[in-house]
Specification:
Distance between the termini: 53 Å
Low-confidence stretches: 1-16
CATH class: Alpha Beta
CATH topology: Rossmann fold
Largest sheet: 8 strands, mixed
Number of strands: 8
Structural class: alpha/beta
Number of helices: 10
């Protein structure tokens, strides 16, 4: 939507669903904007100004999160043999979606996207209409029991077999108490041989982390916590970390597309934990 479009019109001029408030910023749409996407409204671009003011390369931070996610999915399917994935806080569809990477590696893979944003649900359902092994459900990440009892999820995911939970660029939007409670609940859902992947903002004692956190919290979006290495490690308590462990995102099994000299290298961390089989 351009700044002079009416509030009930989308970016392409189509009518926006009543569930979608174009006057309230959305985490999913802000992410889409900073990585160069097209599914955002004027309010999303407005609150993004504070992020770019704090760290002009914030777009690279968003794209780093995306490429790290896709590398992780490829490893989970090709190397770990996982054929079931639950992607929490999946966000708006973009180039190289989780299901595309998974199905490219294993045509029989099953993927369930989970998000609470109405615009994400609308776009995802349209994209996935013809995919038998992929679906999307609407739920809040804090409602872990509800998510894993959802009939649509249970239709595609056998919770008694190994599967992967993806929590990329979502836990850092939770306050400390809910973040620990939610990740503990997610770990409890893992069957033996299953994995938890989580990628989050990192406070590595760098001033820009505090500046960007302030921009997220005070610039209009209201969420976005940068946590220390020790705080992030708590999300994987009781799991065996896959090599190279909890590291800067671009250091987790980099490929040819991974930046080697990123100006936001120290602002984002990731890891994958395995629930032991014994």
């Amino acid at each position: 939507m351009t700044d002079d479009q009416t509030a009930d019109q989308g970016i392409d001029g189509t009518v926006v669903s009543p569930e979608i408030d174009p006057n309230r910023p959305s985490i999913a749409r802000v992410y889409d904007y900073v990585i160069g996407g097209k599914q955002h409204f004027a309010i999303d671009r407005e609150v993004s100004k504070a992020l770019f003011a704090a760290v002009p390369e914030v777009g690279q931070l968003g794209r780093s999160g995306r490429t790290t996610l896709l590398r992780s999915v490829r490893w989970l399917v090709e190397e770990a043999g996982i054929d079931q994935i639950v992607d929490l806080g999946s966000g708006l569809p973009t180039a190289g979606n989780v299901h595309e990477i998974a199905l490219e590696s294993n045509p029989d893979a099953h993927v369930v996207y989970v998000d609470n944003d109405a615009i994400v649900l609308a776009h995802a359902r349209a994209l996935l209409a013809d995919h038998e092994h992929v679906t999307v459900i609407q739920a809040d990440i804090n409602d872990v029991d509800g998510i894993f009892a959802n009939p649509e999820l249970l239709r595609l995911i056998d919770l008694d077999r190994p599967f992967a939970i993806i929590a990329s660029s979502i836990i850092h939007h939770l306050e400390d108490g809910p973040a620990l409670a939610t990740t503990a609940a997610l770990r409890a859902k893992l069957s033996p041989g299953s994995y938890l992947m989580s990628a989050n903002f990192l406070d590595d004692d760098e001033p820009r982390a505090k500046e960007l956190e302030r921009a997220f919290l005070e610039g209009g979006l209201g969420t976005g916590r940068f946590r220390t290495w020790a705080e992030l490690a708590e999300f994987f308590e009781g799991l065996e970390m896959v090599e190279p462990g909890l590291v800067y995102a671009n250091d987790w099994r980099p490929d040819a597309k991974t930046p080697s000299n990123s100006p936001v290298q120290t602002l984002y961390a990731t890891g994958i934990g395995l629930k032991p089989t014994v």
